[in-house]
Amino acid sequence: MSRIDAHHHLWDLTRRPQPWLLEAGLTRLHRTFALGELAPRAAEAGVAGTVLVQVLPDMAETAEFLALAADEPLVLGVVGWVDLTAGGGAVAEAIAALRAGPGGDRLVGIRHLVQGEPDADWLARPEVRAGLAAVAEAGLVYDLLVLPHQLPAAVEAVRALPELRCVLDHLAKPPIASGELLPWAADLRRLAAEPGVSCKLSGLVTEAGPAGWTTDGLRPYAEVALDAFGPRRLLFGSDWPVCLAAASYAEVVGAAEELTAGLTPEERSDVFGDTARQVYGLTP
Length: 284
Known about the structure:
Blueprint (H helix, E strand, L loop, with lengths): L2 E6 L26 H10 L2 E7 L5 H13 L3 E6 L7 H13 L6 E6 L13 H12 L3 E4 L6 H10 L5 E3 L15 H9 L4 E5 L2 H5 L6 H15 L4 E3 L12 H11 L5 H16 L4
Helix pairs in contact: 3-4, 5-6, 6-8, 8-9
């Protein structure tokens, strides 16, 4: 089975500072991470292609990622950033500019760091909705990066824009460390009821924390996602190198394998590659 890692990052501290890496628990990641470091680990896990996801709200970073994808066959797609608050026309122009540059054909989605917005209803703002409509018009996916308390606004945004295809990152970062399921699980199911939304099985080890996380501790959250979305709308993502704060690449892959062990071979193929190919339109 040829696998896809549908969510990873890269950063080069010599080109662009990453102040968020100075936060507690992340300081060990405050160094450069390049594709050359990921490639052998991905190969060992049977990963033949990846989706590289934006880190900073910076179009220059997205342009660099696209140029990298043009030269590196491992990167099949890039989820980049544009200013969604700039208005529909400006968003359309920004997307067109990215597509006109090197590797522009590898732009498969747009993401904003909604998790960092203090306004829980940021996705309800008219200018943001106009920007999201432009993303849909451009035929791109929108990666939803939200926290549990922001899920209701995500549901409303998806309902208001039925033409927008969305992928929820990291199961909306459920409170795994505390062991709580509600209200996260109920809100996740509401989002999953919208047919245009898929979900990444990613980021769970980070939410569980480095102090003794176990696959059994992750299982209740993965089972909710599997039941709500089904394997055909679930995508594996490593969240490398952020995952390294809690687990190695191999450990993340191993945990995902254990969490999906009860699926049929065809369903596992969906989670580990086919869903990502379909949702993002990935081609070798």
